[in-house]
Design a protein that fits this description.
The chain contains 5 helices and 5 strands; from the N terminus they run αβαβαβαββα. The chain is an alpha/beta fold and 130 residues long.
């Protein structure tokens, strides 16, 4: 009997994980075509400019991931921009530093933050994309 409960519990956990991942925001490397498509759809967008060596960026990542898993951000498109290798994208957005977060609602930039690791501030910024 306990084996049956264990299997049922495992099945429930797998199903819950699948549902949660379906509700999470979509994160991908920045691509101009995909970004333009998201803008044309009026989608909520976060541009996350970071560097692997940046401690501020490392502190931002789990905050963004936690917020992006919330239901209101299920349609948020998150585009990662590598600060060291994507200077073309930095120029496009006028970004001068890593740890820069920029939000859009469609084609309109609705907010920007540089260097914040405060969950409340990042949450308020993401809310501006809704």
């Amino acid at each position: 009997m306990s084996r049956l409960f264990w299997r049922a519990g495992l099945a429930l956990l797998v199903t819950a994980c699948a549902v949660m991942s379906a509700m999470a925001a979509e994160r991908s490397a920045f691509d101009q075509k995909t970004f333009a498509e998201a803008q044309s759809k009026g989608q909520s967008i976060l541009i996350d400019i970071s560097a692997p060596w940046c401690p501020t960026c490392a502190a931002q990542k789990p905050i963004i991931e936690k917020l992006a898993a919330e239901p209101q951000y299920k349609d948020l498109a998150i585009f990662d921009v590598d600060f060291d290798s994507r200077k073309d994208v930095l120029r496009l957005f006028g970004a001068q530093r890593q740890s820069t977060l920029i939000v859009f609602k469609g084609s309109e930039e609705t907010g920007r933050s540089v260097g914040s690791t405060d969950a409340g501030e990042i949450g308020a910024l993401l809310h501006k994309a809704l």
